[in-house]
Design goal:
Among the domains are: 133 residues, 2-Layer Sandwich (Beta Polymerase, domain 2), CATH 3.30.460.20; 65 residues, Methane Monooxygenase Hydroxylase, Chain G, domain 1, CATH 1.20.58. The protein is 60% helix and 17% strand. The chain has 9 helices and 7 strands. A 7-stranded mixed β-sheet has the order 2-1-3-7-6-5-4, with helices on both faces. Strand 1 and strand 2 form a beta hairpin. Helix 3 packs across helix 5. It is rod-shaped, with a radius of gyration of 35 Å.
Length: 321
């Protein structure tokens, strides 16, 4: 589905279709075509009406693309990612948004669930200046909103790290290993997206393209700075989660060693008793301890009790029990 907004004669309007006259350089009209959940039919419209390159349209119709910038005969094709982190389900996802921008129009292609684009749609109906500034400024607003949404999501991820770190120190468990590895995977995915996205926006800030004027380069520079901070956070998170995993594995190893010590102590105690009972269970003459045969039985039991208490006390001092 394609939603169209145009700016003409000082007003922002929502229309059902595009007049090809509006796409001429001297028309004075600014067009925004927002493609939600694109289909093959939408792709044919983008090629026929907006004259987009078939290869670029084919890339836009795919659900997963890495951040990048390409040029097609006066048209700028940009792929950037929004973020979606849901701590209640332990899922961290990014979704790409494709931008086709010229001085006349902006085409956005996404899955229909982008909060940043919905927000800009609302602003366009409230403020006529949004589309008046032109397609490049509109693209900047969307990208800036996308990057702004990263900060609370990254804070959620940091909170999740804090909780896991506390559990590692207090209650290490095998189940916690799965959660740490899941966070490690999420952070790695974040880095794979943020780093190339930072480089892509950096190209917009450096005015590598004629369509980006000096004023817009300043605006993109601010977005670039935010992405630099996010990439730094991602690197810090990566180092931190690696340290948490090492500490967790060390704690599990210590628990295993403690369990082994306890098992060894118990085996030592019962092994000694087994030797003693085995010796006096042999069918050969043995030295007597004193008294009658029934009395010797209680002497042997008493000796076992003394040995057990002595070994237990020794292992307690060694903190094996």
């Amino acid at each position: 589905m394609i939603a169209y907004k145009i700016f003409r004669e000082g007003r922002t309007e929502t229309v059902d279709a595009i007049d090809p006259v509006w796409l001429k350089p001297d028309s004075g009209v600014r067009v925004w075509a927002d493609v939600r959940q694109p289909t093959e039919a939408d792709g044919r419209v983008l090629q026929a009406v907006f004259g987009l390159h078939p290869l670029a349209v084919q890339d836009a119709l795919q659900s997963i693309q890495n951040p990048k910038i390409e040029t097609y005969a006066g048209l700028l094709y940009v792929v950037l990612h929004g973020i979606d982190f849901r701590p209640e389900s332990d899922t961290f996802e990014t979704h790409d948004t494709d931008f086709f921008v010229t001085r006349i129009f902006l085409v956005t292609v996404h899955d229909g669930q982008r909060r940043s684009i919905e927000r800009i749609h609302e602003l366009c109906t409230q403020n006529e200046a949004i589309l008046r500034e032109g397609p490049v400024a509109l693209m900047h607003r969307i990208i800036d909103t996308m990057v702004d949404h990263y900060r609370p999501e990254v804070e959620e991820l940091e909170t999740r790290l804090d909780e896991i770190e506390e559990r590692v120190l207090e209650q290490p468990s095998n189940e916690l290993t799965r959660q740490i590895l899941a966070v490690k995977r999420d952070i790695a995915q974040m880095r794979r997206i943020v780093l190339p996205q930072r480089d892509a926006v950096g190209r917009l800030a450096r005015r590598e393209f004629d369509i980006i004027d000096q004023e817009m380069s300043y605006r993109f520079r601010d977005v670039y700075d935010s992405l630099v901070r996010l990439s730094d956070d991602a690197m810090i998170f990566q180092e931190r989660v690696t340290g948490i995993l090492d500490a967790h594995l060390a704690a599990i190893s210590n628990q295993l060693a403690l369990s082994s010590q306890r098992l060894a102590a118990v085996a030592t105690i019962f092994g000694t008793l087994t030797v003693l009972s085995g010796v006096y269970g042999m069918n050969v003459p043995l030295p007597t301890i004193g008294g009658s045969e029934s009395t010797e039985f209680w002497w042997i039991l008493g000796l076992m009790a003394v040995i057990t208490v002595a070994l237990y006390a020794m292992f307690r001092r060694m903190r094996w029990l």
